[in-house]
Amino acid sequence: MSTPRTTPLLIGIDGRSGAGKTTLAVELCARLRQHRTVALFHLEDIYPGWQGLEQGIQRYLDTVLTPLSAGHDAEWTTWDWAADTDGPRRTTPAADVVVIEGVGACAAGARELLDATIWVAGADEERKSRALARDGESYVPFWDTWAKQEARWLATDPVPAAVDLTVRDTAGGGRAGSGGAVDEVLELLGHHPALHAELAPERNALASRPVRIVPAGSLASDDGAGAGGDGTGLNAEVLFEELFGAEDHAVWLDSSDAGRPGTTRNRFSIMAANPGAGLSVSHRDGLTELRRGTSTARLPLPFFRWLATAWSPQTPQAAPAGYDCPFRLGWLGWLGYELKRETGGSDQDTSASPVPDAGLLFADRAVVLDHGNGTAWALELSGATHDDALTADAQPAAGHAEPGRRDGWAATVARALNAARTPPGAPPGGAVPGGVTPPSSGPSTAPRFAARDSHQDYLRKVLASQDEIREGNSYEVCLTTTLTAETPGFDAWEAYRALRRRNPAPFAALMRFGDVTITSTSPERFLSVDATGAMLAEPIKGTRRRSADAAEDAALREDLSASLKDRAENIMIVDLLRNDLSHFAEPGSVTVSRLCAIESYATVHQMVSSIGAQLRPGASRVEAVAAAFPAGSMTGAPKISTMAILDGLEGGPRGVYSGALGYFSLDGSVDLSVVIRTLVVAGTGPDTLLSLGVGGAVTADSVPEEEYQEIRTKAFGILSTLGAEYPE
Question: Whole-model pTM?
């Protein structure tokens, strides 16, 4: 139980003249007053004249902010602008929340006393015209004088870079003071650690919105033809393009091998996006940055600590009959390998990387494709800001829909499904509906990759890993390397379309996050946790290439199944994951349901095991995920000491590769894959950079040349699709 505050919560709103600070402050106070007492202080009431910016800031610090921060009412002297002299005394009470707005509100001396700081940014000409329209002709002679003082002050006190939250008036016209901007600010402030408890009523109102789940249609076309590669007659690529093709932030968790013989790992695909003013988060080197519309919050918080407060699982709501997917909207994205700094690993500098250490978007609309029963579902959070076709009296009860009725988002999804269905008689590889052309076999110009490690370098690192094993510092070292290529104009969407068709996988994914696109054909589940707390990890250790010759292919599969080395690698990781899951599992609930089973994919055979456990009642789901992160199949064992060995051997951060990708659902469900067989595309135009991580497990019995050939085998699926070769 938290201790009640004895001092006000102090929020500073700063910005240059005419940016819209005052309107934002007034509207923010009105919203905050719904649940607490609020006082508002304007710095313009205390500046001593047109030349008094710096003196006014000092007055504010001494007579207003200092007593308020100590829990006392502030008594201060006003400035009489008409008489150009001091005016009467006034008092600002130490209310539950005090909002302070004006130029200098978040000055250097104030920031250490304020609980949250906001900068309102605006274009110079927009600010000037707005200020003059507000204050009249009397302000015209003084605009330049005041503007010079602001510039002088900011030259020595870089407030915009130091605040917690920035509101950008990108559209002009005073957007910072609009209701939409206040919504953005309130939501972002709710993630601030100093305001998290105080803003619980506002956060709870957002979190309590029910999820509307509506059947949107069938996946099958009239003749069942399958141009989309999923055997249902629906071209899923067209569906994604129709719904989310224009979005900068969009996710497709793609069970691209669904419907093929023997594929039972993942029954569902999820398409979601973060349109317009949606909420997203990225993390880099200990700084968590949230974006909502044109507002940005920068919080010096570890990623998993932020996630534990931002993702508060709700009581699961009843789903409509036939909806079996655990996903109920929520956060989707990736957790990069370098987040190991928060889970026992050392800190690798990733500041120069174009890709954040983690990225998530909050989806309040999504489509779920159930490949098991051939249905599509439209999911929507009630009260979504882009709710363009639902009215209060048109919505059925949460979680249910009237039979045969579709409106709003469900109707949009139904139309997209119709556009994505294959016309009767269309060949699987031919023209597809919706104006989307079939993917090429790869880009028109094959990327030329460079390897971080040459052939001989990798062999030396394998030998160095074995030295560490002989010294007793590790049992198994999962050594990796990185291939990179500068490929101007690379089309990540076309590449993913080709990859998912050539290398279908149960945990394939496309993730578009601004200038970063992740295209994954991962066959490996890192960890899932359902709403009841059932946990499942499915590590992969052991790989053989596929052969076009049936007899040779069967022999390769049998060789993997009988390999004592591969079984030893797999069992070591199984033991590691049993330990990882046990930290938050009910005693006695950790079980191994599959041990060293063989699964075959388009280009490789893999050895897979399954470890299950039951989460302890009341245990933190985020902490359970963090305890297992990064995946033991990508580190080796023991995990902590082996990660330290790898930091010394590999010569650079892994980035997204070896991390996890998937969703954190509103009902507490989690499903994350391991980021392997994944191409990361960073940047656009002439600055596009491709990266592909590959690796393998080194044991005492490893043959260095065989380890090198294994990473070439793992890279083949992606490189061959792109028309590229492994660099020598």
Answer: 0.90
Strand partners, 85: 80
pLDDT tens per residue, range 592-635 = 999 999 999 888 899 999 999 999 999 999 999 999 999 999 99
Q: Are 621 and 663 in contact (CB under 8 A)?
A: no
Contact 587, 548 (CB under 8 A): no
- Give SS3 for 231: coil
How far is it, in rounded angstroms, from Cα 275 to Cα 279? 9
Residue 609: φ, ψ to 5°: -125, 160
Tokens of 464: 């160095």
Alpha-carbon distance of 413 to 244, in angstroms, equals 11
Can you list the alpha helix ranges (DSSP code H) found in 77-199?
108-111, 124-135, 143-156, 159-162, 179-189
Choose among 49, 103, 662, 678: nearest CA to 360.
662
Using the Cα atoms of residue 90, residue 94, residue 99 and residue 104 in order, give the sign of their dihedral.
Answer: positive
Q: Is 698 in contact with 675 (CB distance < 8 Å)? A: no
Can you give the pLDDT at residue 123?
82
Report the mean per-residue pLDDT for the chain: 88
Sign of CA dihedral 592, 595, 599, 604: positive
Measure the CA dihedral 236/239/240/246, to 10°.
Answer: 150
- Three-state DSSP at 520 gives strand
Residues 6+ apart with CB under 8 A from 108: 157, 159, 162
How many CB atoms within 10 Å of residue 570? 25
Pick from 269, 690, 257, 227: nearest CA to 502: 257
Q: How far are the Cα atoms of 193, 207, 357 from residue 288, in angstroms, in the given order?
A: 12, 21, 10
- Output the six-digit token pair for 591: 């079980």
Helix (H, G, I), strand (E, B) or coil at 125: helix
DSSP state of 83: T
Distance from the Cα of residue 360 to its chain's centroid? 1
Q: What whole-number distance in Å separates Cα of residue 476 and Cα of residue 569?
A: 7
Q: With beta carbons less than 8 A apart as the criterion, state whether 368 and 525 touch.
A: no
Alpha helices (runs of H) in 388-441, residue ranges in sequence order: 409-420
Query: CA of 577: how far to CAs of 306, 595, 650, 661, in Å?
Result: 25, 13, 23, 18
In 3-state terms, what secondary structure has residue 196? Answer: coil
Q: What backbone torsions phi and psi does residue 220 show, to the nearest 5 degrees?
A: -90, 145
Instruction: Find, among 421, 211, 204, the residue nearest to 325 by Cα.
Output: 211
Give me the amino acid identity at 494: E
Q: Which of 422, 91, 21 is nearest to 230 (CA)?
A: 422
89 CB neighbour count, 10 Å cutoff: 10
pLDDT category at 438 given cuts 50, 70, 90 is very low
Tens-digit pLDDT profile for residues 379-430: 999 876 554 433 333 333 334 444 344 568 999 999 999 999 866 445 443 3
Residue 121, strand partner residues: 168
> Which tokens in the block code for residue 597?
């089973």
Cβ 659 vs Cβ 336: under 8 Å = yes
